[in-house]
What we know:
Layout: H1 3-10, E1 17-26, E2 29-39, E3 44-48, H2 55-62, E4 70-75, E5 78-80, H3 85-90, E6 93-96, H4 108-112, E7 119-120, E8 123-124, H5 126-139, H6 155-168, E9 173-177, H7 185-200, E10 204-208, H8 212-218, E11 221-226, E12 229-235, H9 241-249, E13 267-276, E14 280-288, E15 292-297, H10 303-310, E16 318-323, E17 326-328, H11 333-338, E18 341-344, H12 348-351, H13 359-363, H14 365-371, H15 379-392, H16 409-421, E19 427-431, H17 439-454, E20 458-462, H18 466-472, E21 475-480, E22 483-489, H19 495-502
Parallel strand pairs: 3-10, 3-11, 6-9, 9-10, 15-20, 15-21, 18-19, 19-20
Antiparallel strand pairs: 1-2, 1-4, 4-5, 7-8, 11-12, 13-14, 13-16, 16-17, 21-22
Membrane topology: Peripheral membrane protein
InterPro entries: AAA+_ATPase, ABC_carbohydrate_import_ATPase, ABC_transporter-like_ATP-bd, ABC_transporter-like_CS, P-loop_NTPase
Protein name: Sugar ABC transporter ATP-binding protein
Amino acid sequence: MSAAAQVMQGQGAQPFLRLEHISKSYPGVRALSDVTLDVMPGEVHALLGENGAGKSTLIKILMGVVQRDEGSIHLDGEAVEIRSPLRAQALGLAAVYQDVTLAQPLTVGENFFLGHLPRKRGMVDWGHMRQETERFLRSLGIMTDARMRVGDLPIAQQQLIAIAKVIWGGAKLIVFDEPTALLTNAETDILFGIIEKLKQEGRCVIYISHRLEEIFRICDSATILKDGGFVRRVQVADVTEDDIMAMMVGRSLEAAFPHRPPTPGAVALELSGITAAGRLDNVDLTLRQGEILGLYGLIGAGRTELLRVIFGADPMDSGEMRIAGKTVVPRSPLGMIREGVALLTEDRKHQSLALQLDVHVNMNLVVSQNQGRFGLLEGGKEDAVTKRFIKALNIRTPSPYQKVLNLSGGNQQKVVIGKWLAADPRIVLFDEPTIGVDVGARVEIYGLIHRLADEGRAVIVVSSYLPEVIGISDRIAVMHKGRIMGIVDKEEATEEKLLRLASGLAA
Length: 507
């Protein structure tokens, strides 16, 4: 927290926000039970818990979207009632969600001055609007032309603009809900710089993220919820990731990766001299049946590019690929699917799922194209596929005909896994499989990946999270600028060694 916040806390100063003994029930469901949350001035406070823990309900109560059944809300020591989002805004409360809420047809400047356009001699002062908007954006490290239509900006840039607009409005407390889900590393650095600025100004931040590494980078304190109840409030400096995970799901991160003796079989995939101009440089790699090979590297290292070449989504310029000893030329994804290769992309919402369609349709997308006559399966077979994998993968959905859009991130990812397993692949490529899913769902996905290897499938897992890539892999290949810098056995893998290789240094 900021120096001022530390002094105030040391002197027993009151929190800016106190939610006390909050409870909320829906028909048949106790969403929150006796939850208390405090946020000090100048503090970044994490709100943590699995999907269904009660985080969203608590924030909806704070923002006036729903009303509590019991408990009280205090701002600066005074009891307040927040009956609507407008009342929350008037009290200086704001939230930034994953879904960008800007007016897409308007320019950046028009979004900032919406409802109070600057005027000069009775005309809109477009020059002043642009100047003031860009001046404020630059103060936050955001370099965007205020004349650009919001709808023409990349979605990550829109997210930063939405954050800037909330700050522009003078909010005293800002809730960030998974703010980095759409951001690159560079954009995440900009966001964290903005949050640091808010701290120094004495503003409060509630930060919600499934990425524990972010919590330890930016948060001062945390409240952990489980099954709608309050577990504990902690200072982040006093706990470890294992501590937080144990509080959230009842087991440590280490327990999520139980010892799995590797039992590699025959060579499933062999790459020799794979080169793609500007992306891959003479990549040699061997993957065996029953093996989980981690693929680690910094941004731009070529990990995703390698998976896309293997899957036939991008061309290679030279080299040879063999699957089970047979030379294969990866010309298209459909051809590689027929060779038994599956790719679970990092961006599941845009590249792996039809969000507006239901679980049943999504689950059969690959198998119907690959096996069905004229691209269709008989209805009975489709039903069997859906029921089988909903049960096998423990997909939490009220119905096979629920829109995928309405599922949690973890259950969406399990639908993607089921879609590919229905095609019975020999080689499964995962690109950041746990991104945007809660900690409990991560543990389930780790178990599914282990199960695939135990069934004799060959698995490659790309992950930017070092504890994950070390914990789940039998071996780890490290990439730097399109090249394999080294391959490290699990027993010898350390974060320091992998980072050195990823930076282009000798281990």
